[in-house]
Amino acid sequence: AQSVTQLDSQVPVFEEAPVELRCNYSSSVSVYLFWYVQYPNQGLQLLLKYLSGSTLVKGINGFEAEFNKSQTSFHLRKPSVHISDTAEYFCAVSDVNGGFKTIFGAGTRLFVKA
Amino acid sequence: GAVVSQHPSWVICKSGTSVKIECRSLDFQATTMFWYRQFPKQSLMLMATSNEGSKATYEQGVEKDKFLINHASLTLSTLTVTSAHPEDSSFYICSARGGVVNEQFFGPGTRLTVL
User: Is A76 exposed, middle or buried (0-12, 13-18, 19+ CB in 10 A)?
Assistant: First the structure.
């Protein structure tokens, strides 16, 4: 069975600074990887996904992530954050061969300070 | 992109009553739908997976007699919380898999409050 570990529960950062949210996964089979953002009292919004191909994936709002198979990681990065990026970020893994059910990490709260 | 809707978006009910939540894929046929539960300040926990026309597969620890899932068509799945109690209060999110590239799309969620 697959699992997802988000190493930081909270990440405070100043506006316009770079940020990296870490995500590691474990799975014995091929996986798809995702990052979602959730604003308070709202549903999930897909930031980006890795299905295959290039390991560097670019998403919306200036976010990008790099799939590292040897380290089983899929860290999310943004070179310069804005106040509006304050939200909860979830890394997720979907088992390609197991019915595509998606398992989520515990989440990382990104708090951008002025 | 593909759209998944949920109805209602929020519901308040009395303890002991049953509540039905609908999940619809609006512009694609969903071969599989998933139901998640999210408690405040926590992650999404997968409750069950349902395929159209067959019984849902529940995750370990989820009571199938309490959380009834019906996937009667390729565009509709329902989750019924039977005899709801305050501890069932949560944010319930569905997702649907389908479309051209067989991706998974999430609904906006339903907030259930049981008094």
Answer: buried
Residues 75-104 of A with CB under 8 A from B: 90, 94, 99-104
* Residue contact A42–B104, C-beta within 8 A: no
Put simply, whether B107 touches A (Cβ < 8 Å) is yes
Model confidence pLDDT, tens digit, residues B44-96: 999 999 988 888 999 999 999 999 999 888 999 999 999 999 999 999 999 99
| DSSP-derived pairing of the beta strands B10-13 and B110-114 | parallel
d(CA A108, CA A7): 8
How many inter-chain contacts (A to B, CB under 8 Å) are there?
A: 42
- Give A-chain residues touching B102 at CB under 8 angstroms: 100
Tens of pLDDT, residues A32-55: 899 999 998 788 899 999 988 889
Residues B23, B70: Cα–Cα separation, whole Å: 10
